[in-house]
Amino acid sequence: MRPPHLPLNRQRLIAPGPVEVEPQVLLELARPQPHHRSPEGIAALAEARAKLTALLGDPYDAVITTSSGTGAFEGALVSLTPEGAKVVNAQAGKFSERWGEMAQRLGYRTTLVAKPWGELLDPQEVADACRDAHTLLVTHSETSTGALHDLAAIAGAAKAQNPDLIVIADCITSYGVAELRPAEWGVDAVVSGSQKGTATPPGLGFVLFDPQVQERMVPATGRGFYLDLTRELRGQKAGNTPQTPAINLIVALSRALDRLLSVPREVLWAEKRRQADALVAAGEALGAPAWAARTSPAVAVLRPPAPLTGRQVAARLAEMGQRALPGQAPHEDTVFRVSTLGYADRYDALGIAGILEDAFASLGVPFTRGAAVSAAWRALGEG
Amino acid sequence: MRPPHLPLNRQRLIAPGPVEVEPQVLLELARPQPHHRSPEGIAALAEARAKLTALLGDPYDAVITTSSGTGAFEGALVSLTPEGAKVVNAQAGKFSERWGEMAQRLGYRTTLVAKPWGELLDPQEVADACRDAHTLLVTHSETSTGALHDLAAIAGAAKAQNPDLIVIADCITSYGVAELRPAEWGVDAVVSGSQKGTATPPGLGFVLFDPQVQERMVPATGRGFYLDLTRELRGQKAGNTPQTPAINLIVALSRALDRLLSVPREVLWAEKRRQADALVAAGEALGAPAWAARTSPAVAVLRPPAPLTGRQVAARLAEMGQRALPGQAPHEDTVFRVSTLGYADRYDALGIAGILEDAFASLGVPFTRGAAVSAAWRALGEG
User: pTM of the predicted model, to two decimals?
Assistant: First the structure.
């Protein structure tokens, strides 16, 4: 069957990253780049770092890496965790599993606290494993399952067991999107990347360090050079990156942050919450409920009704010009994933509900036409 | 009252031109321009002209002017109508009035056949006035009122009265959007502009000339030089423009036309018809019915419920980051105008229904929440 409306559809990135980017932000990439050692380049770095801190809302110091979020996470790990130390990795999905594999490969004594994909981490279970650990690696918004883990409860319970524990949180898809209060919650380092909630093209990672934890940073000698964030943090605080940064992306990021900083964090969080709730409501109306019990505002990870698979849904959306994602291996068929993480508003969320209706109808799924659209609009509320 | 969601909304052009433009089309504007006399420049002009003819669907010859649509219309008029000839202007809105004023200022003996704004032209009344006329100036989609005049009936009746009549149609917002069959209907010249249905930035006008009418073209000596399309048509058929064209825009236009030409005209027309019907259905659900009895697929021109005015609605939409339009003077307050004319799809039409609900709610208009969204989605049909 011919996918509906293909050539006349507007092409959209509705995946949980990379995301739609504001045209004005894209234009910054096309401007002549300042040299990163020039006054203009130094000012651009300082401005972007200050805005990253403002978006977080706590007085953490930002390091911008020229890497993906994974690179930034590795930098946080090796710069906060001495050689051979004990690391606990709480995992319940693809990305949290990655941090455990990373810690193992880097030679840390690694303890895994695992839940099946789609389930929520148990704060007490994680805390119990942390009693004699140096560092906890925990994921806030698990992009593979759509779960928003209770980072406040997990960090709180773990620190209650072990006040010296360093908590590094993968906030790659939650930063700027989900409620996040690291100082209050006891999160020492927050990691994210440019192509997620900050709605900038990929290429930059961020780590935001609590002021106190900075005293415990260790040179990453033996575990890395490029991603040694002790050097980066010192350099960036002095106005410079030790290595050449993707300066155009940094300028673009700064521009993208202006929009996010134009409202209080709580307004931003509530808005993204409603958008994701709308996608989940649309999914429910189509017989495709959310996988996770506690859903992330960054992404709706939905289970299509059997025998329809996640790959089939994502493929049909792609045929319609809409770039969503299936699940991640080995759960490609369990779920599909749609998102308004980037430069997208409540009216785009409503449009995605329409897109899902058309996709499901063309795949032969029975449902009442209009149900998903109406459910999404109700979930979006009156603003 | 604070307009809803302003800083977090995606900014949209939802006016009946200039319109949203596909990012790939915008990128063409940033590419190094070919010289218009180089083989590459000559090929670009030929390609764009051929695609304009393909979009029309009849073997008319296209002239591209570096001007707005008004300039192109003037070029058609002066190149098809000798000095002092009798011109009939059928008018029922701002744009059709402009053609009458133009003909008068250019010294033509001008007869006006006028209907009040919002009403439809009467084909027989127009035809009766054309008995001894040389040229009829008629507007297909009247962007100021949202009326789609019955161009087939008007041209047919006029030519039945006067087979030698030359019919120049303002198809500025109907070309590529509304059903248009000029050869069958007896329309000799079709005029449009780049910032409308072809979803390109402003700067180019188009005239498509019937092969037969070209034998009756007259040099515009005394009535114009730049807009003398006898020179332009001859030059462009030979591969060149006599004057310097906006070559980057021509290359961009060519790219924009690729998307429109990827489906049969009938599919394109039906899709834009449904989108406009959805906007009208949303308006009806909000107590803001269409002004015109026969609505244009290019624009929904809606009458807000008293005491709300068109200017108030357009101003609120602008505050929400959505660029629509009020009515045109002197009807600024009678109506407001929204459109999916450009690079916008059915999901964008659905989103605009949501935008209108939010705007009307914030303006204190009583209605059942969800009614406009549901009505729009129903009007969009199953594709």
Answer: 0.95
